[in-house]
Write a structure and sequence with these properties.
heterodimer; A: 113 residues; mainly beta; 11 strands; 0% helix; B: 115 residues; six-stranded mixed β-sheet; 54% strand
Chain lengths: 113, 115
């Protein structure tokens, strides 16, 4: 597709469960970002990939959060032992390089009950 | 550390009037600056950016922004507002030469254009 694709668009899970959120960036974009947006707030940075490696994971809130991008394209954000406070919209973005604008997907709305 | 401030939670303007949405930033190095718009239940859409060069940058949908280094500001402007411009607007900064690679976003400003 032409844009950043995120699946699923909505995810409801029970507290304590494990979830995976997928991001398919724009073809050819080497930079990939994950953000989290809570209601009424701006996007909060989680992690940045340049190619396959996580160049900056300083925004991950704790060790329950992990992300991979094994082939430098699709990325998966993984959350273990989910908590109600993890409920938010998780946004993925990609850019051609780290110095150009990022294009965002529609997000995955995660609800932990 | 880099940061972005959008001092107004909401801006109200009548259709046809000029609009300004304010943004100030703080970085240790040189800034790359961006504006994004978010419509209800939609993702963030890129509007415009300042990387280098002319301080006045033009973007999508008739929007423009002026980079002011001395005031560390990057206010978004449009000469004549449309009702369809009503949305949530986010300013973002990237600190080139600083630590980290992330875009840091402001908390957003809701623009309401009334007919």
């Amino acid at each position: 597709g032409a844009g950043v694709s995120q699946t699923p668009s909505n995810k409801v899970t029970e507290k304590g469960k494990y979830v995976e959120l997928r991001c398919d960036p724009i073809s050819g974009h080497t930079a990939l970002y994950w953000y989290r947006q809570s209601l009424g707030q701006g996007p909060e940075f989680l992690i940045y990939f340049q190619g396959t490696g996580a160049a900056d994971d300083s925004g991950l809130p704790n060790d329950r959060f992990f992300a991979v991008r094994p082939e430098g394209s699709v990325s998966t954000l993984k959350i273990q032992r989910t908590e109600r406070g993890d409920s938010a919209v998780y946004l993925c973005a990609s850019s051609i390089t780290q110095n150009t604008e990022a294009f965002f997907g529609q997000g995955t709305r995660l609800t932990v009950v | 550390a880099q940061s972005v401030a959008q001092p107004e939670d909401q801006v109200n303007v009548a259709e046809g009037n000029p609009l300004t949405v304010k943004c100030t930033y703080s970085v240790s190095g040189n800034p790359y600056l961006f504006w994004y718009v978010q419509y209800p239940n939609r993702g963030l859409q890129f509007l415009l950016k300042y990387i280098t060069g002319d301080n006045l940058v033009k973007g999508s949908y008739g929007f423009e922004a002026e980079f002011n280094k001395s005031q560390t500001s990057f206010h978004l402007k449009k000469p004549s507002a449309l009702v369809s411009d009503s949305a949530l607007y986010f300013c973002a900064v990237r600190d080139i030469g600083g630590q980290g690679f992330s875009f840091i976003f402001g908390k957003g400003t809701r623009l309401l254009v009334k007919p």
